Amino acid sequence: MHLQKRILLIDDDHDHLLICSIILQDNGYLVSTMVGCEDMEDLRATIRTFQPDLIYMDHDMKHICGDDLTRMLKAHPEFKAIPVIYFTGRSDIEELARKAGANGYFKKPFEIAGLLETTRIYL
């Protein structure tokens, strides 16, 4: 029996979350979204409940920056194996992803084929 892969999308842009969620769901993935992140405990609780196989993380969010969240995930024994893909429209995305300890990055705005290919690579 084939289990659906689970993807968690974290971004404070509602439209971006909606578009990515629809694309990924239409391609057979189970998707959960977080509109930004108020604190680390919110993220921990969501991950424990949803158990994602992959996380897409925005960098610039209102409450907590994506690099803080990514560092927390990568330092946590229970979560460190989950690939975290940074996605942002910033030109320094590669450096941001590296400094945060993300597994990869994906620049916004994006093409659908690129989103799906990046997802396949990390799943």
Properties at a glance:
123 residues, alpha/beta, Rossmann fold, five-stranded parallel β-sheet, 5 helices, 5 strands, 21% strand
Q: Layout of helices and strands, plus pairs?
A:
Layout: E1 6-11, H1 14-26, E2 30-35, H2 40-50, E3 54-58, H3 66-75, E4 84-88, H4 93-100, E5 104-107, H5 112-122
Spatial order of strands in the largest sheet: 2-1-3-4-5
Rg for CA atoms:
13 Å
| Overall outline | globular
Written as H for each helix and E for each strand, in order along the chain, the element string is EHEHEHEHEH
Largest sheet entry: 5 strands, parallel
Q: Low-confidence runs (pLDDT<50, min 5 residues)?
A: none
Structural class: alpha/beta
Assign the CATH superfamily: Response regulator
The CATH topology assignment is Rossmann fold
Work out the count of structural domains: 1
Fold and architecture overview:
- The chain has helices at 14-26, 40-50, 66-75, 93-100, 112-122, and strands spanning 6-11, 30-35, 54-58, 84-88, 104-107.
- It is α/β, with parallel strands linked by helices and 123 residues long.
- The radius of gyration is 13 Å and the shape is globular.
- It has one domain: 3-Layer(aba) Sandwich (Rossmann fold), CATH 3.40.50.2300.
- The chain has a 5-stranded parallel β-sheet with strand order 2-1-3-4-5, sandwiched between helices.
- It is 43% helix and 21% strand.
- Helix 4 links the parallel strand 4 and strand 5 (104-107).
